[in-house]
Design a protein that fits this description.
By secondary structure, the protein is of the alpha+beta class. It has two domains: 256 residues, ATPase, nucleotide binding domain (Nucleotidyltransferase, domain 5), CATH 3.30.420; 169 residues, Nucleotidyltransferase, domain 5 (2-Layer Sandwich). Helix content is 35%, strand content 25%. The protein contains 14 helices and 24 strands. Strands 1, 2, 3, 4, 7, 15 and 16 form a seven-stranded mixed sheet that branches. Helix 4 runs parallel beside helix 7, helix 9 packs across helix 14 and helix 11 packs parallel to helix 13. The radius of gyration is 22 Å and the shape is globular.
């Protein structure tokens, strides 16, 4: 009997990943299509049509893998970077390049939003509006474009744009929109204050419901192009939330430590926290429809990759980690490293005789300290390691035995690795399967 599968598509900031999956995991190796963003005069943008071509290549690769494995594609599910957006005109055409979420130009708009929308924690799950958020970016567009802003039919997030191109319908999910500033995550509705601030109407945003609650089939043209039937397309939340589902988080206070480009400590919560610590974000969890709380250090993976390329290119990344973490050293003799952000690193106390492994160890000691702080804040544990259950881990650094052993010794934690670094992809399938099972429907 032919086995059914979902094609998971994860829209990362620098790569799209796609694979045939079900709730048990990957059913074939993922297709990864990388790309470079456009940087100019402080802007971070990308061509919307190129996004579509990259998504098409990733989907086509995953569908070929499914066909080779004798699998029947019954659904397509999408997880996404949350805040990249595109304004569309009345014909559904992009009016400008996509504004990528890392674009931080909407500084004054974010400051104004903080005055217009008090208690931003219960509103949007952030301590305050950020320039990278969707809502301040739209305010920047309506303020700067004047009459041209009147030609906008829809302001769409990246996942919503690709869904529109695949199905002809504009829809998304409350996890992604809950991080946008437009959707009130406590009241579960569009925020009239945010709409008024940005100068738009609710009808200019995508139809939005819980993750995988809305679906429409691929258009006939896409069915022919991809060589599959009219599979329904689902919007399943952001990548971190889908990764949490993929590694098996199901109940309150389950935790995932994701060591990818960023270091993210992600926990499920029944209730939205009243206050957030620095470096924390809360939102709507797509699997449970309750909440998540995460702690974030945004540069861990990039910094470790930089150190590897600069100092250890003749060895493997794993060898670098072992060299730095398994040596016996008096940590007081190591240089002091600080990372102020924006890709900058500051080193003090660098003495003659310092070896490359000492520099890497100093960097890892800093990230271990940060890990402990984030974990304690997100878990609510004064003493880390109080739980007997294993903490799930995923992401590139989690492949290093030396790193997990080091954290285990330092904090008394035990870890359980995800089956794959691409945990978001099977997480997509789990979210769709739960939603369709709860609703009594079939994919």
């Amino acid at each position: 009997m032919t086995k059914n599968c979902t094609i998971g598509l994860d829209l990362g900031t620098t790569a799209f990943k796609s694979a045939p999956v079900d709730g048990t995991g990957l059913l074939a190796d993922p297709t990864v299509v990388s790309y470079d963003l456009d940087y100019h005069a402080g802007a971070v943008t990308f061509d919307p049509e190129s996004y579509l071509h990259i998504a098409t290549a990733a989907l086509a690769g995953a569908i070929r893998s499914a066909r080779a494995a004798g699998l029947q594609v019954t659904a397509i599910g999408i997880s996404s970077q949350a805040q990249t957006y595109i304004p569309l005109d009345a014909h559904g055409h992009p009016m400008q390049p996509a504004i990528v979420w890392t674009d931080g130009r909407a500084v004054s708009e974010a400051q104004d939003a903080a005055q217009a929308i008090p208690d931003f924690v219960s509103h949007s799950g952030f301590r305050q509006p950020l320039p990278e958020m969707f809502m301040p970016k739209v305010r920047q567009f309506t303020r700067s474009e004047g009459a041209r802003a009147g030609d906008v039919w829809k302001y769409v997030l990246l996942n919503e744009y690709l869904i529109y191109r695949l199905t002809g319908v504009v829809y998304g999910d409350t996890t992604n929109q809950g991080m946008s500033g437009f959707y009130h995550i406590t009241e579960r509705r569009w925020s009239q204050a945010a709409l008024a601030f940005a100068g738009i109407a609710a009808g200019q945003l995508a139809e939005t419901a819980g993750a995988a609650q809305i679906n429409h089939p691929l258009t006939a043209d896409w069915c022919r192009s991809l060589g599959i039937g009219a599979a329904p397309v689902y919007s399943c939340g952001n990548d971190q939330s889908c990764s949490a589902a993929g590694v098996g988080l199901t109940k309150a206070d389950d935790i995932l430590c994701n060591f990818g480009t960023a270091m993210v400590i992600y926990a499920l919560k029944d209730n939205l926290p009243r206050e957030l610590a620095p470096r924390q974000i809360a939102g709507i969890n797509p699997l449970t429809d309750r909440y998540f709380l995460l702690g974030l250090e945004s540069e861990c993976g990039n910094m470790m990759d930089w150190a590897f390329r600069l100092m250890y290119s003749e060895l493997t990344f794993t060898q670098m980690m072992e060299d730095a973490l398994r040596m016996v050293v008096d940590t007081r003799t190591l240089p002091t490293i600080q990372i102020p952000g924006g890709g900058r690193i500051e080193i003090q106390g660098l003495n003659v005789g310092c070896e490359r492994r000492h520099l890497v160890r100093a960097l890892l000691d800093l990230y271990a300290q940060t890990f402990g702080e984030l974990y304690a804040d997100v878990s609510g544990e004064r003493r880390i390691g109080g739980s007997a259950s294993a903490t799930r881990v995923a992401g590139g650094l989690s492949r290093s035995d030396a790193w997990l052993e080091y954290l285990s010794r330092r904090f008394g934690l035990t870890f359980k690795r995800a089956a794959s670094d691409q945990a978001a992809l099977p997480g997509i399938a789990k979210i769709i399967e739960r939603r369709t099972t709860v609703n009594g429907t079939s994919i």
